[in-house]
């Protein structure tokens, strides 16, 4: 064992330099985690809603409606984070005047950093639920069907396996389906995010 003062001074300096370097690296990681790698909200955008199939027949003598509709909903999820976003199983809903009339599952997945994941969903409507609403016949007579699409994606952003953040993104779009020519008219979308 060497008790030389120069050797002890050199060992102490190496120890201080190592401690200083570790403290600097820890501070740098924390600063990066809350600035550059700060979790950002994924954005769900409804790119288009098209009428895939519409079969409609109104039998006034029997007071019966035969109605079947399928909508193709193209949406995309944009991940603005500098790390991947992993989301859980979810679903997109189709509502008529607050009543759920259709649902399609969205399987779990992962979106890489700064990437956009496109999705094409086909929603088949549960026609029997329309008829239970008293406004349905008035809407059909008017030739316009007001619908709402709702989608919520929740998942996690994992930064350097040290910091995990839960992120939820929701999109709600009001649309009008014109029954006369089987087309989709006005769309008004609202987006909400929660970290």
Automatic annotation (TrEMBL):
<dbReference type="InterPro" id="IPR004864">
    <property type="entry name" value="LEA_2"/>
</dbReference>
<keyword id="KW-1133">Transmembrane helix</keyword>
<keyword id="KW-0812">Transmembrane</keyword>
<dbReference type="Pfam" id="PF03168">
    <property type="entry name" value="LEA_2"/>
</dbReference>
<feature type="transmembrane region" description="Helical">
    <location>
        <begin position="14"/>
        <end position="37"/>
    </location>
</feature>
<protein>
    <recommendedName>
        <fullName>Late embryogenesis abundant protein LEA-2 subgroup domain-containing protein</fullName>
    </recommendedName>
</protein>
<dbReference type="InterPro" id="IPR055301">
    <property type="entry name" value="Lea14-like_2"/>
</dbReference>
<feature type="domain" description="Late embryogenesis abundant protein LEA-2 subgroup">
    <location>
        <begin position="75"/>
        <end position="168"/>
    </location>
</feature>
<keyword id="KW-0472">Membrane</keyword>
